[in-house]
Amino acid sequence: MALTLLEVSNLRIVKHALVHPGDGLNVIVGPNGSGKSSLLEGIHMLGMGRSFRPGPVGQPIRRGETSLNVRGCWCTEDGGQIALGVERGPEHRRIRVNGNTCDSAGSLAQVLPLQAVLPDTRYLFLHSARFRRGVLDWGLFHVERTFYEAWMRYQRALRQRNAALRAAQPLATLEPWEQTLAEAGEHIEGLRARYLEPWGMLAMQYSEILMSGMQLRLEWRRGWPEAQSLADTLSRDRERDCREGYTRAGIHRADLQVHLQGAPLRECASLGQQMLAVLALRLAQVELLMQTSGRRCLLMLDDVVNQLDRDRRASLLARVAQLGVQTFVTATEIGGLETTGSPNRRVFHVEQGRVFAEEANEE
Ligand SMILES: Nc1ncnc2c1ncn2[C@@H]1O[C@H](COP(=O)(O)OP(=O)(O)OP(=O)(O)O)[C@@H](O)[C@H]1O
Ligand SMILES: [Mg+2]
Question: Is 243's C-beta closer than 6 angstroms to any atom of ligand 1?
Answer without folding.
Answer: no
